[in-house]
## 1
Amino acid sequence: MGSSDTFVIVGAGLAGAKAAQTLREEGFDGRVILLGAEPERPYERPPLSKGLLLGTTPRPDVYVHEADWYTAHDVQLRTATRVTAIDRDLRQVVLDDGDRLGYDKLLLTTGSTPRRLDVPGADLDGVRYLRTLADSDRIAEALSDRAHLVVVGAGWIGLEIAAAARQRGATVTVVEIADLPLQRVLGDEVARVFADLHRGHDVTFHFGAGIRQLRGTGQVSSVLLTDGTELPADAVVVGVGIQPDTQLAEAAGLKVDNGIVTDARLRTSDPHIYAAGDVANAHHPLLDRHLRVEHWANALNGGPAAARSMLGQQVEYDRLPYFFSDQYDLGMEYSGWVDPHGYDRVVFRGDPAVVDGRAPEFLAFWVSDGRVLAGMNANVWDVTGQIQALVRAGHRGRAVDLDRLADPQVPLGDLLP
C-alpha cells in the first residue's frame, strides 16, 4: 500500500473513526477519506442513554477524537455527507451532491437504524427514538419531575433510558411484549434481576403487552395497549431493536444476510470492500458461525481489525462479544455468546437478589454440559479477563466443576489449570 492509494470509509461513527486512526498508526500514508451522514464528528454512543441523559458526562467527552485530530493526521473527514451508491466496477462511491470519490479499498461502517413503531399515532410529536446525539438531546428535554414517560421495549436501551428518567424524577412505565426484560438475551434467571431492580426504583412494567395506538392531538398524550390499558404519556421512547443499515451494500450487489456478510478478516463478497461494526455479519472463528454484534466493543475493536485487514495484514477477528450497562447502582459486563435455548443452567456466584432496591454483587455463568458459554459480572470488577478465558475454553469444549464455579472462595483462574 503506497501514498497513491485511497481508502474510503463510509460511516463516521466509532468503528469508522477507529479504523482511520489505525490506518495512520500502522503507517499508511495514502489518502484516507471518512464520510459521515451526521453533522457531528465521530462520537461514541453509550453515553447517549447513560451519562448524557443524566448530565454526568460532559458533552465534549463523547467524541472519539478532538476536533483538530483529523486535520493533524491528514484524515479527510466530511460530515453531513451521504453516500447514495457504490460503483463497484469503477471503484467509486457516489455522494448525495453527485460527486464521485474513487477508492482502492472501501470500508463500510454504516451502523444500524432503529426499528420504527408501526401503529396509528406513531408520527405524533413526543415520540422519540435513540440513535444520534440529537436524539439524546430531545429525550433529555422530556425528562423532568412529574413527566410521564412510556418506554416501549425492555432491552438495553429501554432499560437504560428508564433508569436515567427515574433518576431525573420522571414517572416511568415500560411496555414489553415478552414476559421479562432482556429475556431473549439473558434468559429468565438473570432477567428477573433487572425486573426486580427497576421495580425497586418504582418503574411500572406491562409485560406480554403490545401497542395498539398512540393517542394525542399533535402531541402524544397516551399509549393504548393491546389489552385495552391506556397509559398517560408526556413522551414515548421506542426501543424495539435496530436493523443493520445495508441499503448501500444491497444496491451494490454485496452478499447481505442480517448485515453485510464478511469472513473472519472482515472482507465482504467484493475483495476491495470490507465491513465492520453493527452492520457486519462476520464469521467468528471460535464460535464457527456468522455473528452480528450490535455493541460498543465491536465497533471499538472491529474498526481497527478491518483497517489492518485492508492493509494486507493477516487478521482473524475473534473477539468475544462483550457489552456493558449501567442502571442505577448496577454496573455490569457480559462476555460470550449463547443461543437463547443453548444452555442448560445458569450458575450464580454470589446472591443476585435485589434488596430494598439496592443492586446485588454477583457473577452469572450460562453453562451447557459443564461448559461456560457466557458470563456476566455485576458490581464485581477486574474479572472480565478471567471470565473470557472460561468462555473461550467452554466454546472449545472444556468443562469446569460447577460447584467450584459457584464458590466465591475459589479463584476463577483456578478453574482452568
## 2
Amino acid sequence: MSMDRCHNCHMEITKQCVAALTWTLKDTLGEVLDELGEPVEFLVGGDDLLEKIEQALQGHEAGDKVDVHLEPEEAFGDYNNQLVFLESRSLFPAELEEGMTFEGLPAGASAQAPRDVLYTVTDIYPDHVVADGNHPLAGIAIRLHLKVEGVREASEEEIGRGSAGTGFFKVQRGAPDGAPLH
C-alpha cells in the first residue's frame, strides 16, 4: 500500500483530495437545520462544496474541527420570489405531499418557470399547488460546524466528474440517499 493512499497518515486537505466530513448546520439563532452524523465524502476542488467551505478546509487534516459562517450570498443565495409558482393541482400526481420535490415543473405549468430547477411543494390547496424553486436554505445565513473525519487522494474518475458522488450543497433535503443529482 503506497503512502499517499494511507488513511492514517497526516494528509492535509488541498485541492483534488476527498474529505470525509460530518457537520452540524445551524442558523444564526442556533436552530439546527441539518445534522450529518455519518461521514460523507466530498471532492475538494470540484463541485461538491461551496467555495467558502473549501477555503476554510484548506490545510486541515483528519480530526480537525472547522467552523464556517456563511452569508446567504455565499451559501444558497437570497430568497427569490420569482421562483415561487402557483400551479393547477391537476398537473401534479395524485399522491402529493408537502415537501416533495420535482426537477422542473410538470408539463402545462407556467412557461416562465425555469426547467432546470428543483421545486419543493410548500402548500397544497384543493385546486392549486405552491411550488417553490428556492433552495430550502435560501436567504438564510448559516453556521457550519464541520469535523474532518478523513482525507484521501481523489481518484481520476472523481476529478473528471468534479464530484465524489455526493453534492449535499446541490441536493435538496429529502432526496433519497444515493439518488442521482440529475
## 3
Amino acid sequence: MVLKIIAARKEIGWRLTDLAAHCQLDTATTYRIVACLVADRLVQQRSSDRRYVPGPLLWELSLALPAYTSFVSALRPELVRIARRLSGISFLYLRSGAESVCVERAGSARVQPMTMVGTRRPMAESTAGIAMMLRLPLEEQQELIAFARNQKHRTTEYRASAYRTILQRSRRYGFGVNRGDTAPGLNGVNVPVMDGKNRPFASIGLMGPAAMFAGERLAKLATALHEDAERISREYSALIHDLDSHER
C-alpha cells in the first residue's frame, strides 16, 4: 500500500508524516516500511526536499514485462490522433485488479486535468474505471464499489460523492461521463477497450472544456471513441493477447 501511494504521487513526493497520515499508520511503522523500500531502491529520498519518491528499481523490474511497454508504445500514436481529431486530451487506462491506472495521455486543453501518467484510483472512483465497470457483471461491479468504499486511503468524501454521481449518470449513458463533477469546467467521456474474451481490460477517453461536450456533441464524441476502441481491439489483438498472459 505504501509503495503504491508513493508511486501515485511521483512528482510531489511525500513527507514522512503526511505519508503516515494518508496511510493511517503511525509514523514509526511508516518509517520502518519506507526504510526497507529505500534500502531496496524501490523508493528514494529526494535530496532537494527530503521527500520520498519512486525509486529506480521500479523501472528495472518493469523490464520483465515487455508486453505492457509494447502495448503502450503502440497505442501512443493512436492517442495523439484522437486528441488532434477530437480537440482534447486523450487518455489510455489499464485495469489493475480493482483499480484503474493511467498509462498514457496526449494532447492539451485550456483547462488541465489533474490526471497524469501513473495516476491510480479505485475503478469505482475513476471515470475511466467506471467505463470498464459497466461492461462487467453486476455482482462484480458491486465488489468494485465495495473495494473503493473500504479503502483506508480513499479519496475525500466530496470526490467520493462526485464519483457516485458519475456512476449514476454513466449507467444511463452506457459509458463513462464526467460533467465537471471532479474539476469545474472540465468534462470527460470514457469508453472500454475489450480483450479477446470480451472483457474490459482498458479504456480510452477524452477530456476538455465543458463546451466540447454540450448537446449532441457528447453522443458524437462517444461514438467516435467507441469506433476507435473497437478498432484497437481488432488491430492490436496480438498485443492484447500478450497482456492476457499476465494476471491483471
